[in-house]
Design brief:
Blueprint lengths: L1 H23 L5 H20 L3 E2 L1 E3 L8 E4 L10 E2 L3 E5 L5 E5 L23 H24 L22 E4 L9 E11 L5 E7 L3 H4 L3 E7 L6 E4 L5 E6 L2 E2 L12 E10 L11 E18 L11 E18 L10 E10 L2 E4 L2 E17 L4 E19 L3 E16 L2 E2 L1 E16 L2 E17 L14 E15 L15 E2 L3 E12 L3
Parallel strand pairs: 1-10
Antiparallel strand pairs: 2-18, 3-4, 3-7, 5-6, 6-9, 7-8, 8-9, 10-15, 11-17, 12-13, 12-14, 14-15, 15-16, 16-20, 17-19, 18-19, 19-23, 20-21, 20-22, 23-24, 24-25, 25-26, 25-27
């Protein structure tokens, strides 16, 4: 009897112990698992609150189209992650897009929303359910066959794949079919999901703070000169460029610095009505530049749904030009100088800000501009070098403000001025910089050469000359432009009108002289 009671008591204690272990887990594993869970919980708020420094670099080249997705259901929905999803097609008018899921078995990186990119047939839990259901269907199909209404096969229709994206997700993509300017859009409706997981969606334009979140970024990215499409507007335009590992040479063997684009041109200018044939006007020279896209973003506060703390978009780079003006040019028309565009350039460089591909739209129009009184005959030439920086800068304290800076210097190569009057010649570029097909900053960079004379005067840069009267030659730069409404793409407050960049005007004396005929 005692042995029986003892055995019963031990059995009960064993049962209690086993039940306790089943509830709490093995003592050697539980602390480790608990510690890991606690550590993850403790780290999440800190990592979400920290402002991540995002690198600003050129996007990788090749056939792959960079894509990032900000998951609306993530703990930090304003922070995008690199995704293997691709924009298969996009209609900019309707906002309808087809999002292609990664190919099965591909070695692409997982999507930012992996739980929603795999098809339902690949879900382990649903696969088990389908197996049980198939067994039941097989049992029922025997009866069903007798009535003529069963399938007779016991197979269950394959479940429809899950959508590749969800409503509220924000997609940032480099140029894709139907979207030459890239895509930055939020999914507003799931229209359909194909068997391969491709999802047709409705979208609306999104803003950068919805994919950059509370991150910070600051940097400049050179524009590969070989990617610029050049459309000559006058005869005689020659284009040369140089990039790392792939050198080309400018006319007359002039070797270009790496990353530079050079455009040489020579063109006739409308001559003054009373000018003799020997005083026919012409311009000739080249402009050489190494453009860079400047981008910065300060996402302080953006994670709470408010605007970022700061932003900048602009164009910067080195500039060199050398040009000459000869003859007697016609005067201004209705008070406006005569402008001769000689080349249009366009590029859509993709910069990578952390995991997010940002498509920059860059347009340049290179031109000559002449403002003369029609009496002065000149033969002047200038060599100019320097740099420039134009763009729009946003801060909470001051809102959007224009930035226009330039440091240039030149020297005269030839100076001959005859008659009384002034003439001003510029060789410049009108630049437009935008994001995802929207116009953000427009700037006119116009280095110029101005000559003046108060009598028949002829001089040169070395100080020699013979004339009655005096002459002077000046170099300078005019920089003007505007900020446009579309800069609100950063997620900043919208302004209702264009904001002037703030005109920059600088002029310096190159050379002057005064002499009397012996």
């Amino acid at each position: 009897m005692h042995k029986l009671r003892r055995h019963t008591l031990l059995s009960a204690l064993s049962a209690i112990t086993v039940a306790t272990l089943l509830v709490t887990g093995c003592s050697t594993d539980s602390p480790s698992t608990a510690d890991k869970a606690a550590a993850t919980t403790a780290e999440s708020p800190a990592s979400g609150a920290a402002e991540e420094q995002l690198a600003v670099v050129s996007a990788p080249t090749g056939d792959a189209t960079p894509t990032a997705v900000a998951d609306a259901n993530a703990a930090d929905p304003g922070k995008a992650k690199r995704s293997a999803l691709k924009v298969a097609s996009y209609d900019s008018k309707s906002g309808r897009a087809v999002i292609a899921a990664p190919a099965s078995g591909s070695d692409a990186e997982p999507s930012a929303t992996p739980s929603r990119t795999a098809s339902a047939s690949q879900d382990p839990d649903e696969a088990d359910t389908g197996s049980d259901s198939d067994t039941d269907t097989g049992a029922d199909s025997g009866t069903g066959t007798g009535t003529g209404t069963g399938t007779g096969t016991g197979e269950k229709p394959k479940p429809k794949p899950k959508p590749a994206v969800a409503v509220g997700d924000v997609i940032a993509s480099a140029p894709a079919p139907g979207a030459p300017d890239g895509v930055l859009a939020e999914v507003t409706e799931i229209v359909d999901t194909a068997a391969d997981g491709g999802t047709t969606v409705e979208t609306e334009p999104a803003e950068l703070n919805s994919v950059l979140g509370e991150g910070k970024a600051d940097g400049t990215v050179p524009v590969d000169p070989s990617t610029l499409d050049v459309d000559p507007l006058v005869q005689g335009v020659k284009v040369s460029w140089a990039k790392t590992g792939d050198l080309t040479f400018g006319p007359e063997g002039a070797k270009l610095p790496l990353g530079s684009l050079r455009i040489d041109v020579g063109a006739a200018v409308e001559a003054a009505p009373d000018a003799p044939a020997s005083a026919a006007a012409s311009v000739e020279g080249f402009v050489q530049l190494a453009p860079e896209v400047a981008f910065s973003y300060d996402g302080s506060g953006a994670g709470t749904g408010s605007s970022p703390g700061g932003a900048f978009l602009g164009l910067t780079g080195d500039w060199a030009s050398q040009w000459s003006l000869k003859g007697r040019a016609a005067g201004s028309t209705d008070g406006k100088p005569i402008r001769i565009p000689f080349a249009e350039l366009h590029a859509d460089p993709v910069i990578q800000v952390g995991p997010v591909p940002i498509v920059v739209n860059l347009d340049l129009v290179c031109y000559f501009q002449v403002d003369a009184d029609g009496r002065v005959t000149v033969d002047v030439e200038q060599d100019l070098k320097g740099d420039f920086r134009v763009g729009g800068n946003f801060t909470w304290a001051k809102g959007w403000q224009g930035v226009s800076e330039s440091h240039m210097s030149g020297e005269p190569l030839k100076t001959t001025v005859t008659a009384v009057g002034d003439v001003k010649a510029a060789m410049g570029a009108e630049a437009t910089v935008g994001l995802y097909g929207t116009v953000g900053v427009t700037a006119d960079i116009a280095p110029y050469l101005r000559a003046e004379a108060d009598a028949t005067a002829e001089g040169s840069a070395n100080g020699t000359g013979s004339a009655q009267g005096s002459w002077a030659l000046y170099g300078g730069i005019d920089l003007t432009g505007t900020l446009n409404l579309q800069l609100s793409i950063f997620g900043t407050p919208i302004f209702q009108k264009k904001i002037p960049l703030g005109a920059l005007h600088e002029e310096w004396l190159l050379t002057k002289g005064e002499a009397k005929t012996p």
